[in-house]
Design goal:
By secondary structure, the chain is mainly alpha-helical. The protein is 78% helix and 3% strand.
Length: 172
């Protein structure tokens, strides 16, 4: 295991905290769409998970979504912790371990698997929390929309704008 400098650890901690705060903030409101709301915190979760290691990604995805729900809509907060936490870890593992030499491919595979994890987690979570599978099925199209928007925008922001390149430069 390579040794990291105090400066690098500090930069990683600050960036993780920044993404976590952004996740909480974007959990506070949704963009109205016919029949529901689209929450943009998935964009932050995907972006952070592509760039950060699995532990940091879990903190941003799982803990950030948990806190967002805790403050604004507590019913599904544990579903968010588990679902977004696993989603973020899988994206990070695909980006950093599975496809280490091809980061864009790893990110695409990761956000695709992560989107499926998010949709399945919230579908089963809603059925459990609200005790009705009909409600969970009713919200299924919004889950796919949210997961898709988060995956595409998160990947684009990371690679299309050069954020990942800047991040990698700052943590060396």
């Amino acid at each position: 295991m390579e040794k990291t400098s105090a400066k690098t650890r500090t930069v990683r901690l600050v960036i993780t905290a920044l993404f976590l705060a952004m996740n909480v903030a974007l959990s506070s409101f949704g963009v109205p769409v016919p029949g529901g709301h689209l929450y943009l915190n998935d964009v932050v979760i995907c972006l952070a998970a592509i760039m950060l290691n699995p532990f940091e990604a879990f903190m941003v995805g799982g803990v950030g979504a948990f806190l967002g729900d805790f403050f604004f809509y507590p019913a599904p907060m544990f579903v968010s912790l588990v679902t977004h936490g696993i989603q973020a870890v899988v994206i990070s593992l695909c980006s950093h371990k599975l496809f280490k030499k091809k980061p864009l491919l790893g990110a695409i595979v990761g956000v695709t698997i992560g989107a499926l994890i998010m949709v399945a987690g919230y579908t089963f979570g809603r059925a459990f929390i609200y005790s009705t599978k009909e409600y969970a099925l009713l919200k299924l199209p919004f889950q796919f929309l949210q997961a898709g928007v988060g995956a595409v925008l998160g990947t684009f922001l990371c690679f299309g704008t050069g954020i990942k390149k800047q991040f990698d430069k700052s943590v060396r």
